[in-house]
Design goal:
It contains nine helices and no strands. By secondary structure, the protein is mostly helical. The chain folds into two domains: 40 residues, Arc Repressor Mutant, subunit A; 152 residues, Tetracycline Repressor, domain 2.
Length: 223
């Protein structure tokens, strides 16, 4: 089918409309004809901006993942809190569009985020974090954040006592007790998980440096 000679819609409006459809009707309801109808145009108009449905979904994934701006925090010794905020922003954006979670699993290749990774690597460098730790931090943050948030997005929202659903107090008394005594929401648990990972990297680096220094001192003393 031939394209119209001039675009009737913008790329941004098509992506925004796609997200609206997926949010309100679910991913299964999304199609190019449905999107065209939503925009009040014929399907060929979409081909001014996208080669196919996959390219639209990739743009949707990019929009959702990039919705949160980088935190405004100066580089320094408290650099882990920059990444805690960054992860919380991404979590909020993804959970705002729960129906789109499968799209991020399929259409969010790492190279789409390369600009953000460069910015965060620069932040780490300016914070005095050794370059040898950057991949560990950035890769770990991606795996933890996306893995945890996408899993949460594909489940029903939970309360403090239903984070593990369908727990039977009779057959699972220890887990039931743990849920009863849990004081953290899903949001707070996620935040502390990210913080624990990052400060764990800091602690392990300090231990490694201390051991290396100690070995060096022993070597000097024995010589």
């Amino acid at each position: 089918m031939a394209r119209p000679s001039k675009p009737l819609i913008s790329r941004a409006s098509a992506v925004a409309a796609s997200i609206e459809i997926i949010d309100s009707e679910g991913l299964d309801a999304f199609s190019l004809p449905r999107l065209a109808k939503h925009l009040g145009v014929q399907a060929p108009s979409l081909y001014h901006h996208f080669a196919d449905k996959s390219e639209i979904l990739q743009a949707v994934a990019r929009q959702i993942a990039g919705a949160g701006a980088l935190p405004r925090r100066k580089p320094g010794p408290d650099w882990p809190e920059f990444f805690v905020t960054l992860s919380m922003n991404l979590r909020r954006s993804i959970l705002k569009h729960r129906n789109a979670a499968p799209i991020l699993l399929q259409y969010l290749p790492r190279d789409l985020l390369i600009g953000t990774y460069e910015d965060t690597a620069r932040f780490l460098e300016e914070s005095g974090v050794p370059a040898r730790l950057h991949v560990q931090i950035l890769d770990g943050m991606e795996r933890l954040t996306l893995g945890a948030v996408l899993t949460e997005a594909m489940r029903k929202p939970s309360t403090k006592t239903t984070i593990f659903p369908n727990v039977d107090p009779d057959s699972q008394p220890l887990l039931a007790r743990a849920l009863t005594e849990n004081e953290m929401t899903s949001r707070q648990l996620f935040e502390e998980m990210i913080r624990s990972f990052l400060y764990g990297v800091v602690r392990n680096e300090q231990i490694t440096v201390a051991k290396a220094r100690h070995i060096g001192e022993l070597s000097v003393s024995t010589n």
